[in-house]
Amino acid sequence: MKNQLFTTAIVLGLLATSPASAATDEGAVKDAFATWRTALSSQDPQKIVDLYEKDAILLATLADKPIKNQADRIAYFTTLMTNPKLAATVNEEYVRLLDENTALVSGIYTFSFEKAGATTEIPARYSFVFEKKGDDWLIAEHHSSRVPQL
């Protein structure tokens, strides 16, 4: 009986971390990142800020200091969203599941918006750390910086 319980526990553990489960989580993380990009284009700062954990750290492309609370994130995105046609287009995306509750999404995206009647494009590197909270993947850390022009 003891061996049967042990074997059942092992099988259940393997099923919980099966490749199918990992693929589902990877898809959910990609969806969370796509939701962030949609929220960025929404012109509604609250939509994007709601995707961050309350104590998340944002090292933003166009900010000169770390943004560590919801109020400062609202202020940053409110200012950023004054730019018409704001969007982030993914050029490269890499997703790594670190464990069942943590994922890293990194790559290159291009911010674009209109300014003075012309389209401005800012290629940037990004890293997002997502943490699973219940059924949601929230942003725990986000770093974005301009791609250097060499």
What does this protein look like?
- The protein has 150 residues and is an alpha+beta fold.
- It has one domain (22-146): Roll (Nuclear Transport Factor 2, Chain: A), CATH 3.10.450.50.
- It is built from four helices and five strands.
- The chain has helices at residues 2-16, 19-40, 45-49, 70-80, and strands at 52-59, 87-99, 102-115, 118-133, 136-146.
- A hairpin with a 2-residue loop joins strand 4 and strand 5.
- The longest helix is centred in the first third of the chain and has 22 residues, at 19-40.
- The chain is globular, with a radius of gyration of 19 Å.
- The termini are far apart.
Number of helices: 4
Structural class: alpha+beta
Low-confidence stretches: 5-18
CATH T-level fold name: Nuclear Transport Factor 2, Chain: A
Residue-averaged pLDDT: 89
The amount of helix comes to 25-40%
Shape: globular
What summary fits the major beta sheet? Answer: 5 strands, mixed
* CATH architecture descriptor: Roll
Number of strands: 5
Counting structural domains, the number is 1
What fraction strand?
35-45%
Identify the strand order in the major beta sheet: 1-5-4-3-2
Q: What are the secondary-structure elements, in order, as H or E?
A: HHHEHEEEE
Q: Radius of gyration over alpha carbons?
A: 19 Å
Q: What is the CATH class?
A: Alpha Beta
List its salient traits.
41% strand, single chain, globular, Nuclear Transport Factor 2, Chain: A, 4 helices, 5-stranded mixed beta sheet, 150 residues, alpha+beta
